[in-house]
Amino acid sequence: MKRLICALACLLHTLGAHAEWRGYVAAELLGFQEAPRDARQHDAYASLAFEPEYFREWNRRDDLFTFKPYFLVDAHDDNRTHVDIRELSWIHAARDWETNIGISKVYWGVTEAVHLVDIINQTDLVVNEDGEDKLGQPMAKLTLIRDYGVVDLFVLPGFRERTFPDIEGRPRFSIPVNDDVLYESGAEELHTDFAVRWSHSIGEFDIGVAHFAGTAREPRFVVLPADLTPPSTIAKVTPLYEIINQTSLDLQAIFGGWLLKLEAVVRSGQGKRVHAVAGGYEYTFVGVNESQIDIGLITEYLYDSRGDDIDLAAALAGQPFFLSPFQNDLVLGARVTLNDAASSELLASVIVDLDDGGQSYNLEASRRFGDSWKLSLEARGVMNIPANNVLSGFEDDNRLRLELARYF
Amino acid sequence: MTISNKLLPALLLCLLPIGAGAESPEEKALGIAQEADRRDSGFGSYSNDVKMILKNKQGRESVREIRSNTLEVADDGDKSLVIFDEPRDVAGTALLSFTHKEGPDDQWLYLPALKRVKRIASDNKSGPFMGSEFAYEDIASQEVEKYTYKYLRDETLDGLDVFVFERYPKDEKSGYTRQVIWLDKEHYKERKIEYYDRKKALLKTLTFADYQQFRDSFWRAQDMHMVNHQTGKSTRLLQTNYDFAANLDDRDFDKNSLKRAR
């Protein structure tokens, strides 16, 4: 019997089979400096998140099955309390192609402050307003590996609505977002979207060119007549998901300690054609002062052809509008990596609006405690925002977020 | 025939000291490094498990676990893909490295939470690997061309006949001014390395133990111990489950493979 188990174990080992459960449980506290504008909101929020992941790889890592559900319970915000399947997919890799079938997540892009190019997955905005959490996207993906680069072909059946905070949630836009949404396509959330991407690494350069045709991940908003009490009291705004075409470029180059980054998109289908660019650099000083500490300096410039002002008259007249805050902005940041056993890290940045001088601040720090605990701290806020700017509703929402996670 | 057969070794014996005398300490050490490289070439690929035990000055330990894959590249440095298992908050993070004989190495880091592949500056070679006492340059593939050499002396170390020589990193981003190597004469494997920092002070000592031979040719130390003399910290690196029949190829070391890492 012992022999049999040993033989079986050896066979599995040679087949490269490996299966595991991993993940985390995290408790989060979110506190605000000032009282909320809307009496239905709160001063503090507590929440609990759980993200287990099961994976199994076999065939010498050529086949991979992944299942990753996500659970979040928030004490006040009913929209934030939700369950999602982040991943439920089977990846098969062959000599010069790969397939990925199921629910999965794909990331495109290189810049730090904004993620213009990243479009496959919908943003799970209620988890964190940094927009880096994504909902699982159903997909069939074929990857072709060729001498001239890698070509990814996507068929994306089904669409996920962006998540927005509930009336009790915070931070949120001063006018709540309608839970019912509008679609341009009659197929609504069952519209099938397509995307293709070519990417290549050539020496110091990593380049990607992509095209997406389908339902916009980022909605415009409309004020429906029923939600408008004349002359200008708006009960809620409704997300409008239109069919768009977006072509994008992402480019990264590395020269010694310099990391140069560029993202650019052209999008049509949501009123006037949208152009947006984000570009800049991160320079890393390694081992500052003969220590083990690395310091990276980040500078990025953000341009967006959409305005960051709200035309209230047009909105009241039923015109769809964007809520996009970065029209002509400069990002300055610093990343400090201690390279210690606790993996201590700190990232501080400010985004300055070059037109009106408004500022957004962001601080993120984290370290490990023991072998499996991690403490993260985030501080965010805005300052000097003019009344007509998209961010003007967030002035009383300066906040501190503390998360303690236990990994297994 | 009989005469020449007897004469030849004698002649060679006469020639040998002259030949050795004509060789400079630099040439001799380079020759040793090239021979060590030659004996370890032809392995193709292998995978193994790595456990690092980090110990701080107070003796508190923390553990790192990694799955490592290595591919030999003809006429260039090796490729490697390492996947982290411990600590758990970085489980699934993976690092793809292409080392080069000339010029900077290429490195991409895969962050599983964001599903993001980040290119990272290879300037960090002097930085600590996962908070350990091993720098990136200590664990990267050791290419002959990355150093200049100087032979010092022959010695015995723990009963083994060894060459002792120095090597000097060519890359100005290296954290070291020189390294002293103790290499055993029988198998041409490292037994001890001393690392001297940019101020030329002794920084670390690495000792190798528990060598095992694979496929009748390739020797791997399964127990490496790095002691930092300046901080009192140390890291023990245990390598097990060597699989020299893994049969890996370029496809196992590309960005798609990196994204499949779990």
Kindly state the percentage of residues in helix of chain B: 10-25%
- SSE-based structural type of chain B: alpha+beta
Global shape of chain B: globular
Report the top-level CATH class of chain A: Mainly Beta
Biggest sheet statistics of chain A: 18 strands, antiparallel, barrel
Q: What structural category characterises the helix and strand content of chain A?
A: mainly beta
Count of domain modules of chain B:
1
CATH class of chain B: Mainly Beta
CATH topology of chain A: Porin
Rg from alpha-carbon coordinates of chain B: 20 Å
Low-pLDDT stretches of chain A are none
How many individual β-strands of chain B?
13
Please report which band the strand proportion of chain B falls in: under 5%, 5-15%, 15-25%, 25-35%, 35-45% or over 45%: over 45%
Q: H/E series of chain B, N to C? A: HHEEEEEEHEEEEEEEH
**Largest interface: which pair?**
A-B, 51 and 44 residues
Write down the Rg of chain A: 23 Å
CATH topology of chain B: outer membrane lipoprotein receptor (LolB), chain A
Q: What is the ordering of alpha helices and beta strands of chain A?
A: HEEEEEEEEEEEEEEEEEEHEEEEE
Task: Indicate the topology.
The complex is a heterodimer of chains A (408) and B (262).
Chain A: H1 2-15, E1 18-32, E2 44-58, E3 63-74, E4 82-93, E5 97-104, E6 137-146, E7 149-157, E8 182-183, E9 192-202, E10 205-215, E11 220-222, E12 228-229, E13 233-234, E14 238-241, E15 243-255, E16 258-268, E17 274-285, E18 294-304, H2 312-316, E19 328-337, E20 345-353, E21 359-369, E22 373-383, E23 399-407
Parallel strand pairs in A: 8-14
Antiparallel strand pairs in A: 1-2, 1-23, 2-3, 3-4, 4-5, 5-6, 6-7, 7-9, 9-10, 10-15, 11-14, 12-13, 15-16, 16-17, 17-18, 18-19, 19-20, 20-21, 21-22, 22-23
Chain B: H1 2-22, H2 25-39, E1 45-55, E2 61-71, E3 79-86, E4 94-98, E5 106-111, E6 116-120, H3 136-139, E7 147-157, E8 160-169, E9 176-184, E10 190-197, E11 202-214, E12 218-228, E13 234-243, H4 255-260
Antiparallel strand pairs in B: 1-2, 1-13, 2-3, 3-4, 4-5, 5-6, 7-8, 8-9, 9-10, 10-11, 11-12, 12-13
